[in-house]
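SEQUENCE AND FOLD
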Amino acid sequence: MLSDQTQAELVQQIRQWSRELGFQQLGISDCNLESAETHLQRWLNAGFHGEMGYMARHGLKRSRPQLLEPGTRSVICVRMNYLPEPMTQSRQRLADPATAFISRYALGRDYHKLMRKRLQQLAKRIGEQIGPFGHRVFVDSAPVLEKPLAEKAGLGWVGKHSNLINRRAGSWFFLGELYTDLPLPPDQPVKNHCGSCRACLDICPTRAIVAPYRVDARRCISYLTIELKGPIPVEFRHAIGNRIYGCDDCQLTCPWNRFAKLSTEPDFQPRQRLDSRILLDLFSWDEERFLKLTEGSAIRRIGHAAFLRNLAIALGNAPRQEAIVAALKGRMDSASALVREHLEWALQQQLSGKRNDAGN
């Protein structure tokens, strides 16, 4: 059993190690997520998770760390900045209907492996200091309520858009957790500073934030372009604009992100010019090229068919161009039934000129 003094000294040492490993902040949470569990259950009961069955699949393990990893007493939470470019540049890309907009977290190398490795290194240093201890690393890889844990650990507060916000760093950061059997002193949560602000609710293209702190994933562009496996509902297609993988609108408008810091991690910098590719360029990729150029990227997990589905919608929303019409027609014969349905919709938009450019 560690004494109180030893615990305090160890925590200070862990914070120092975390900074050396490239994390911008570390906090410690206990395992009581009763309030978050209630919120999660209401969200699931409303069906807001859509086809994300994994959100309900693991029972109470998601909100009770001891059930997921027996013996857990404290959770070490970390955050790492990932913003690869100034937000003014991101806004410019989003405003150009010929450019493919990809959520900024996915422009670089997939963060899961990098952060998991760093957390494992942190655990190794702790073990070298105190001896063997029970632990398990998580980076969006298991049923973990990472945002409520990070909130309890003092890394920020969960905003009205459901992202974690930090007063000094905005919300452009990844989260990771180290479940431990160590009785570490928890940090204090910080106050919620959203106040009466409605910026994220008002900017959401599909009105997915149906109420403060309540997001209907079935309407969210990130869900529609990444998680949804079938056809994207017609009612949301114009609003998707040129967003082909995820959506950053709520972060781009959040006032607290004026304090956001650019990432210093080389792996989070844009790869394959994905920050500025035009739609027609990406649409020309066959499956082999898609797999090659998205290797090591989070984008790869949606597969080539969903990639083309998303691009077809974006091309349908783009200003009329004969090259787009020709490209859409050229894909028609070889496309799967899923992709073909979106190609037909996009072609109709191009030929009729009925587009909602406000979606951008």
